[in-house]
């Protein structure tokens, strides 16, 4: 029933949300149930308002006021001319990893509509991340650090790669929290600045032998290094960078080659958000809708 909250699971089956994703009245009832509509208090007289769901408006109960305003005002749904159920339909499939072309086929959307909407969703989840979500590690927690170049081979041949450098880290915890930052340079000053911002002091940081990592002990970190020209796992400390290397592979699978230079930052934020909410993407999406306010 739409009058009570749908049971949250790691990711709800489509049939459990059929009415929400295919019916405008079902979608609006769903938003109302989850407190995802705009404020129901009149800005003019501070009185309660009644919801006219079929018209998508609130109407002030004060007989001398009777001001009306959109129940979608200030929400993610006010940004688009699409019907609410279509927005939720697109969002569901974006969360599920449906490709743009398949979504155009399934829903009959234009490619540009889906492209623009996917970008809006990436902006939404990026805005929903807070400082805590992009600071990793802690006392005694191992954090692997590395840099990787994102781009494509020039003219699709040879070894020269045009693109951008991304510096990132992943922690050895059940959450596997990550940070990912585009950097213009890989010098010591740049890397130190990023590390201090995103890795808690007291962490055990693991890196390769790149000279940009020299002196991290001076910043309050335990620093382990692995010489990749000789081995992938340090025999004495057990240090390795397998987790961050695996993370790069995962990120690059998620980001189309065409987006690795022009739209990479928004795609990196999406990856961080998905990792943060990997146990319940749907719930994380609803929380983002509730937290992010649009003027």
Q: State the shape.
A: elongated
What share of residues are in beta strands?
A: 15-25%
Q: What is the mean predicted local confidence, pLDDT?
A: 88
C-alpha Rg (nearest Å) = 23 Å
Instruction: Name the assembly state.
Output: single chain
How would you write the strand order of the largest sheet? 6-5-4-7-8
Structural class: alpha/beta
Distance between the termini: 32 Å
User: What name does the CATH topology of the domain at 133-262 carry?
Assistant: Nucleotidyltransferase, domain 5
Number of strands: 8
Major β-sheet profile: 5 strands, mixed
Q: Helical percent range?
A: 25-40%
Q: Unreliable runs, pLDDT <50, ≥5 residues? A: 1-9, 154-160
* Number of H- or I-type helical stretches: 9
**Can you name the CATH architecture of the domain at 133-262?**
2-Layer Sandwich
What is the name of the CATH class of the domain at 133-262? Alpha Beta
Key attributes of the depicted protein:
16% strand; alpha/beta; 35% helix; Nucleotidyltransferase, domain 5; three-stranded antiparallel sheet; five-stranded mixed sheet; 295 residues; 9 helices; disordered N terminus; 8 strands
């Amino acid at each position: 029933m739409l009058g009570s909250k749908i049971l949250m699971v790691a990711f709800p089956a489509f049939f459990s949300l059929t009415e929400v994703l295919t019916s405008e009245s079902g979608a609006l009832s769903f938003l109302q149930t989850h407190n995802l509509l705009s404020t129901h208090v009149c800005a003019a007289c501070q009185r309660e308002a009644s919801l006219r769901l079929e018209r998508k408006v609130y109407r002030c109960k004060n007989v001398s006021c009777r001001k009306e305003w959109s129940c979608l005002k200030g929400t993610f749904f006010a940004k688009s001319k699409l019907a609410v159920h279509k927005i939720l339909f697109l969002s569901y499939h974006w969360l599920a990893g449906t490709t743009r072309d398949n979504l155009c086929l399934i829903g009959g959307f234009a490619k540009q509509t889906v492209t623009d909407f996917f970008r809006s969703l990436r902006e939404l989840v990026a805005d929903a991340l807070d400082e805590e979500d992009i600071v990793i590690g802690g006392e005694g927690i191992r954090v692997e650090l590395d840099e990787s170049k994102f781009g494509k081979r020039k003219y699709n041949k040879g070894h020269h790669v045009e693109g951008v450098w991304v510096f990132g880290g992943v922690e050895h915890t059940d959450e596997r929290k990550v940070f990912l930052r585009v950097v213009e340079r890989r010098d010591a000053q740049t890397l130190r600045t990023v590390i201090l911002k995103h890795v808690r002091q007291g962490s055990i940081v693991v890196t390769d032998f790149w000279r940009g990592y020299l002196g991290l002990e001076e910043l309050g970190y335990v620093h382990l290094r692995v010489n990749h020209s000789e081995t992938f796992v340090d025999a004495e400390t057990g240090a390795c960078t397998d987790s961050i290397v695996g993370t790069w592979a995962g990120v690059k699978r998620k980001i189309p080659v065409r987006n690795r230079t022009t739209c990479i930052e928004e795609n990196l934020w999406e990856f961080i958000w998905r990792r943060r909410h990997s146990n319940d993407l749907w719930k994380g999406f609803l929380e983002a809708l509730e937290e992010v306010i649009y003027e």
